[in-house]
């Protein structure tokens, strides 16, 4: 087990902040993010290795015992020191910014080990967000987290970096601006057992046809990005065409989704294969059946994914209507059946909405075998996660978050 240093030990001395390089300052901010950024609640499945979030690999806080991390997070003196350090850093950054606008000074006059003016805005944004969190301000602005999911055999890992944007308290439709536990759970399950989700053909006859994957209510894009990166890593998809479509409705959420996709795909994806692609697109479930389809939604999908997307009474019915036009219908027994994989939390405050799934989608045993083809619940599984809420408040440590995973597909009589 690695030793986790407290801020008073790890951070550059307050009195010497101006003498440290931008790389060192960014490293210090990443360390504080690892300590104080709130992790995604309800993303730790019990008895299963959880995804890592918050910080670069060398600073990942994956300890067998979380008591060390909890002790530092709850230490008032360490938090107070972090606030002082961040306040001093922001003040120094403002000095550098003011000097940069003065013709009487040049970069060499700033006395820093390397030019930092191009990065001061990034440093200010990160420091201000951390300061707001450490001071207990709810509206802490954007938060960027690193997620790492591991295969069961430990041979491969899938990583994604996502940015959450602030929620608009006056607009309930923008909840996708932040990463929710259900997305972490679904992404982790997919990485651990891709064949279960129709995403690994290694044990089947290799299909040459294109694999089409759709995510409904993609939010920050975690599930879609993990699927794309997973398929890039699987040998069985090295030469198979893959197209992933991540959709959302709310304008600001869709814009952030596109930003996250661009940030994750541009650096690695083009180096792997030109046959794999991921796009984002607007999708309004309520009007899907009455509006023209864009090209990226004009064909049927083999795998459809949804995480934490049922929070209004009409959602399940709207989603069913979309799926009827988007999920590939059974035609060839040699091709793996298409399916919709849905993970939703069982929130006491949204019990009615959660129950609409089983009133809209019947179980296979309840369907008339002589009736028309219909989408039914093929399987259902309960998943329990440790809540691990905000350590700084000392709450949520003994709570559980329960999810239900549905596999929904076409009924075969």
Q: What report would you give on this structure?
A:
- The protein is an alpha/beta fold and 413 residues long.
- The chain contains 11 helices and 10 strands.
- It has an 8-stranded mixed β-sheet with strand order 1-9-10-8-7-4-5-6, covered by helices on one side. The protein has a two-stranded antiparallel ribbon with strand order 2-3.
- Residues 52-65, 109-115 and 389-397 have low confidence and may be disordered.
Task: List key phrases describing it.
elongated; alpha/beta; 11 helices; 32% helix; eight-stranded mixed beta sheet; 413 residues
List the helices and strands and how they pair.
Layout: H1 7-10, H2 22-36, E1 44-45, H3 67-73, H4 76-100, H5 120-134, E2 143-150, E3 157-164, H6 181-192, E4 211-216, H7 222-233, E5 242-248, H8 251-265, H9 269-272, E6 276-282, E7 303-307, H10 315-326, E8 339-345, H11 351-360, E9 375-386, E10 400-410
Parallel strand pairs: 4-5, 4-7, 5-6, 7-8
Antiparallel strand pairs: 1-9, 2-3, 8-10, 9-10
Helix pairs in contact: 2-5, 4-5, 6-7, 10-11
Shape: elongated
Into which percentage range does the β-strand content fall? 15-25%
Range of helix content: 25-40%
Number of helical segments with 4 or more residues = 11
Instruction: Report the count of strand segments.
Output: 10
The whole-angstrom Rg is: 23 Å
The largest sheet, given as strand count, sense and whether it forms a barrel, is:
8 strands, mixed
